[in-house]
Structure formats: C-alpha cells, structure tokens
Amino acid sequence: MSVKFNQLANAIRFLSIDAVQKANSGHPGMPMGMADVATVLFKYHLRFNPKNPNWINRDRFILSAGHGSMLLYSLLYLCGYKSITIEDIKNFRQLNSICAGHPEYKEGSGIETTTGPLGQGLGNAVGMAIAEEIYRKKFGSSLINNKTYVIASDGDLMEGVSHESMSLAGHLKLKNLIVFFDNNKISIDGSTALSVSDNYKKRFESYNWEFLEVNGHNEKQISRAISKASKSNKPTIISCKTIIGFGSPNKSGKASSHGSPLGEEEITLVRNRLKWNDKPFEIPKEILEEWKKIGDKGELLEKKWQEVINKKKPQIKDNLEKTFNKNELGDLENLIDKQKTKYFETKPDLATRQCSMKTIESISSILPQLVGGSADLSGSNNTKTNNSKIINSKNFDGNYIHYGVREHGMAAVMNGLALYGGIIPYGGTFLIFSDYCKPSIRLSALMGLKVIYIFSHDSIGLGEDGPTHQPIEQLTGLRAIPNLNVFRPADINETLECWEIALKCNNTPSAIALSRQKVPYINPKNSKENKSEKGAYVVNLTSHESNVTLIASGTEVELALKVQKNLKENNIDSKVVSMPCIELFDQQSEDYKKDILEEDSLIVTLEAGSIMSWQKYIKNNGINLGIDKFGESAPYKEIYNHLDLSEEKITSFIQKKLRQ
pTM of whole model > 0.90? Predict the structure, then answer.
C-alpha cells in the first residue's frame, strides 16, 4: 500500500499531540499547523544524512519557532536519527530527555541550535548562511553548496533581532537562506491583529529579500515555492498561510491550541477527523518505513559528495577536515610566547583595546578560521587590523564583517558562524552595549560555543561620553552567566594571555573587556607561563609579610600599584594581585586561592564598576572599592577622583581601616 502525503504529515501531528498531552505541557498547535511544510521540505528538498548528522555539506534546518519543538523531535525520530528514540519522545519535557521543552543544541543530534528565545534561531541561521558562503568561496561550489532553512513564527518576526538579522542577510544577498514564515495569525494573547499590522511583503522586500506566499497545507504549492527560492539570487521568505492546531475541531485556528495540551476529548476528535486510528505514540509500520526511506536518501547524497572530494587533490580533503577541527590552532602557543617576549622588551603604554588589536593582527596570520567584525565601531573597538579582509555581497573571500549598528543581530549571527563549524567568530561593541547582546551571549554559554565577544570602553575611563556610555553593572551581569569567561586584562601581556585562553576554550565563550585609556606594562618578569590561566596572580609585593592584599582587574591594576607605592611610603607592606578572570580563579585549588587571599591580610578589591562580583573575597574585614552609582561626563581622571577612586583616597581608606 502506498503511503499518502497526508499520512506522513499526520505522523508528525500525532507524535506531537501525544507527547504534549503526556507531558501535560507544551505547544501542539504549531507542529500541527506546520507539519505539511516540514514534510515537503524533508521529503523533497532537504539534504541530510541521519547516519552522519555532522556531514559538513548537509543543509541546515533551524526551528527558530522553538516552542514547536515537537515538530523537530518528531522529524528526527521519523527520519531515523539515533539521537531521538520513541522513549525520548514519550519523555518529552522530562528530566534527562533530549526532547527538552525547547530545542537544545547537541552536536551530532540533528538539533542544530538552541532556540526558544524568539528571533535567535533566525539570527543563527543568517550566521550559518554566511559561513556557507565563506567556505563555498574557499573550497568551491562542488564541495560546499548547502542551504539553510528556517521555520520562523510571527513572534520571531516581531522581535527586533529579526529586523537586524534579516536586514544584514539581504544586504549580503544570502541566496542560500530560505525562511518559512508560519503565518497562522495567532500568538499566545490571541490574534496577531491585537499587536501587528505590518505589511510583510513590503517589509521583507525592503530588506532585499524575495517574498513568496503559499497555502501552507498545499503540498505542490509549498514544493514549487522551495524550488523557486532555491534559484533566487537573494534570500527568500515563504509566507505559509497555515491553520494552527490543524485538524482540531474546536481548537484549530485559535490561541487555545498554542501553548497548552489539547485534552483527551479533543484528541479523540482530532483522531476521528484525520482518520488516525492508532494508539498514542504508535506509528503504522508502512508510514514509519516511508519516513525512514526519506532519511536513507541522505546516505547516497553524502556518498556522491564524498566521490566529488575523492576526485580532488588529497590536500583539499585534508584542508577541509583540518578546517572543521576545532582543536586546530596551529602554532598558537609559540606565537603568543614570541609576542610576550617582544612586548616585555619594549614595555609599551597602550589602551587594552589597542593591545587586543595587536593580538588579533598577530594571531589572524596563523588562524584563517578567525572571522571578526564590529557593530559599526571598528575603529573604536580596534577589531579591524591590517590582516582584515572585508566580506561583502560580491566577495566572501574575507574574514571581517561590517555588522552595522546591529548588536543584537551581530551576536546572534556569531553564534550561527560558530554552529556551522570551522569558524571562530569574534565581534566588538562597547561594554555598555553588551546588554544588547545578552540574549545571544547567554545562548553561547548554554550551547558551549567558542564565540569571543570584544567589549571596549570598559569603565568610567572612557570619560566625556558620560553615564549613558559608562558601564557600571555590566561586568557583574556578564559574570553572573554560567559557563562564560569574562576577561579584563591589565596590559598587553595579559591581553595576549586572555586571547590565548579564549581560543583554547572549545566549550566556553569569552567576553574580553578592554579599556579606552592607556595603561602601562605591569609585569616585572617575562614568563612563558600563562599566568592569566589561573584567573589571578601576584604582580608585585613589598614583603612576604604583607599587611594588605590589593586585588584589581584591568586598568585598576595600575591604580593598585600606585596605591602600593603610597602604602610603602607609610611603612605598610602589601601585595598587588591582578585578577583578569574571576571565573578561572574560582576554579583553582583551595591552596592556590588561600595563597592569593591570605587570611591574615586585609583584602582590598578594586574595580571601576559594581562591587557585587567582588564581595565574596573580602571575608568580614575587607574593603570593596568600586562604583554603586552612575558616572559623570568629564575627563576620566576627574571622574575617578570624583568617585573616590584616586590613589590618595584609596590609600587613606586603607589606612583608616588598618587603624580600626
């Protein structure tokens, strides 16, 4: 018996309905509404291989509408991915099930990215499409020619990150990017007419996108639109007019099917209407076999691709494999060591943003996988170097992206670049605007991606721009994110070391906070050891019997050294500790931490920002010196003095504390 198209789609619908009902939690309406679109895509167009989910040239499928996660889990199970079993689906939204409430990235699972925060998956997809263009240019269209497909909801398109990402995609003419807009006109609150009256066609055409419209339940219309989109010379969005909760007599087309189980009575009615007579979680053998055949086609597709590779010169295949090896960092350690030795000899006074630029320039000479950019602040962030080659719509043979004033989009795109594989993305803006990047940074950390965020103008030290641009709470906010290393280097030596650590961290993103103002070279000795790897180390001490331990980060290390000099003149011995990374220090052994934070020494922490990150270090009798209010507009030295962060005032604070 031949299996009909609607039977294939209904397998998705009922796995989704049953899983949500059993969990008593979830979103059944979207998978029911988009099952036809997904079936057309997987059956006729998507190139994927369940037996090798990491196939480099696979098409990427992104469910940006992550609330409809059961659509993705159903597809992966039906197509034969080993990552998801029927037991996993039965345990939807339960502890330790890969079928989490919203899709969570797991390499080699078929889940290409973590989605749920709306708009993020769409931004990731733009990054993946850029990565494909970069590698198509590098290896040729016979080896790299995959597409990126996205299912996006009206909620995705309401989020501001969608505007930034799609605008950039249109500017770069990412013809390999195809988005299905689940245009069901329903959101959680009810009809989208409550909050949206956009002319979508005009909106997306203004971004330089192709805009197509189809009946999202018409197999032939959907397939023709995908074929047309595949031939376009620009990105395409296909508006799929669908019925949320398709097949439900009482809840289809209504918000009631969006975020709640249908209920047993309604499910019985859906089974009757769609002529599905099987028990929950049971898929008829012939339907399951037909879906497995759809998955099996990918094995032949990859085999043909391998044949193309085998006809190339051996070094091309080796280069391709080397490119996608995330442990491949060339002779990084030797390069960093040579740079540290060079700067130890010259001891330059540089802003750490300048130090970062010099570091990027040197490491990019040996790391072609490094792809940088800035949110229209290249000259201020110092992310662009003499080795930077601009990527644009006419040439993807480059390593630098002008993101424009699009911090939200830049961060989401960088996650996509990292997810594609083979690319280490870095991107810059001011630290104050890290708040715009925060949702994406959190997802970088959640997914364990090697993404490097460059945040310059890291304190009141930026001066005259005033409190709107002076970060106070931003470092504390970033440090609160699990699995994120936040670096604040004090000089060129530490900047080199922090970059080295960031590049070696395969499963942890990094934020590097950099100064606008110049700082002196602080390290009295040259060492091959990467002292920043332990998060904190002693820079200088006036005696091994120190009365005071001054702990500082970034530009305040210079200030701590000046305070140390003042204290010594008053016969008070101290040691200065640079702590470029709190997260790494907290991971050290208790013995090492006790060596740094001596119990019989007065602990004084110093950072030109919120003190919240530092309170855990002072015990009962220490001092946290920082800023608990907004800054001022003035030359930076005047602001430091105004906010009691001058060397004289700090020295006085310490003397008073010691007399108590």
Answer: yes
Cα separation, 654 vs 431, in Å, equals 30
**DSSP alpha helix (H) spans, 140-185:** 154-158, 160-171
Domains defined along the chain, listed by start: 5-303 (3.40.50.970), 332-519 (3.40.50.970), 532-659 (3.40.50.920)
Our CA dihedral for 599, 603, 609, 610, rounded to 10 degrees, sits at 50
Dmax of the chain from CA atoms? 95
Query: DSSP of 248-309, one letter per residue?
Result: -TTTTTSGGGTSS---HHHHHHHHHHTT--SPTT---HHHHHHHHHHHHHHHHHHHHHHHHH
d(CA 427, CA 509): 12
CA 249 – CA 244 distance, rounded (Å)? 12
Confidence (pLDDT) at 525 = 87
Asked if residue 32 lies in contact with residue 253, where contact means CB atoms within 8 angstroms, the answer is no
Identity of the amino acid at 85 = T
Alpha helices, DSSP H only, in 529-598?
A: 556-569, 582-586, 590-596
Token pair 């899709």 is found at 103
What residues does 601 pair with on adjacent strands? none
Q: Report residue 1's pLDDT band, with 50, 70 and 90 as the boundaries.
A: low
Span 618-640, mean pLDDT? Answer: 94
Segment 110-158, tens digit of pLDDT: 999 999 999 999 999 999 999 999 999 999 999 999 999 999 999 999 9
The verdict on whether 328 is a catalytic residue reads: no
Kindly report, residue by residue over 255-300, the tens digit of the pLDDT: 999 999 999 999 999 999 999 999 999 999 999 999 999 999 999 9
Answer for the pair 50, 298: CB distance below 8 angstroms, yes or no: yes
Q: One of 133, 302, 407, 558 is an active-site residue; which one? A: 407
